[in-house]
Specification:
InterPro entries: DUF6428. Pfam families: DUF6428. The chain has about 160 residues and is of the alpha/beta class. It has 2 helices and 6 strands; from the N terminus they run H-E-E-E-H-E-E-E. It has a 6-stranded mixed sheet, with helices on one face.
Length: about 160
């Protein structure tokens, strides 16, 4: 989800709710402690220089049970971040604490924002020596060459 998309969704909501893919909800007393832009410049294992940008939201479980983040407040935080930091309309990456800090993509299911698990990947598979996945075949579908088979007592083994 891009920043422009969340800005369109927030005014239509009564509450801001985040949920993990497994159905667990982020406690409703969470705070968004950071909104920023992350610039990542790196070289992949194939030698290609890459430059990625993402908008970062950091969610934190506060022990502040009296306050709930409302959609208008989050929208104001986003707008202030755009104004003061020059944040671009990029994909949103969410940081959320579980056993360690997890990074998630963000989707909306019509009611709640869903934290989608991210995975690592090789960006230069053709250059770093990883073999392409072999085609899997079902043994029952293989044809047998009758002229090249061993039979009991045939002396081929």
């Amino acid at each position: 989800m891009k920043l422009s998309e969340i800005k369109e969704i927030l005014p239509t909501l009564e509450n801001v709710e985040f949920q993990l893919e497994n159905g667990t909800f982020v406690p409703e007393h969470f705070h968004v402690t950071e909104v920023g832009q992350i610039n990542k410049k790196f070289i992949d294992c194939g030698g290609v220089i890459r430059d990625e940008k993402a908008v970062n939201f950091q969610l934190w479980n506060a022990d502040d049970y009296e306050h709930r983040l409302k959609p208008g407040k989050l929208l104001n935080i986003i707008r202030l971040s755009e104004e003061k930091l020059g944040i671009e309309d990029s994909e949103i990456e969410v940081e959320y604490q579980s056993d360690t800090i997890g990074k998630y993509d963000l989707e909306f299911n019509g009611k709640t924002f869903v934290l989608k698990s991210k995975t690592t990947a090789c960006l230069a598979q053709d250059a770093c020596g990883i073999p392409s996945e072999k085609q899997k075949k079902n043994l029952s579908e293989l044809t047998v060459n009758q002229s090249n088979t061993c039979t009991p007592g045939g002396g081929c083994c």
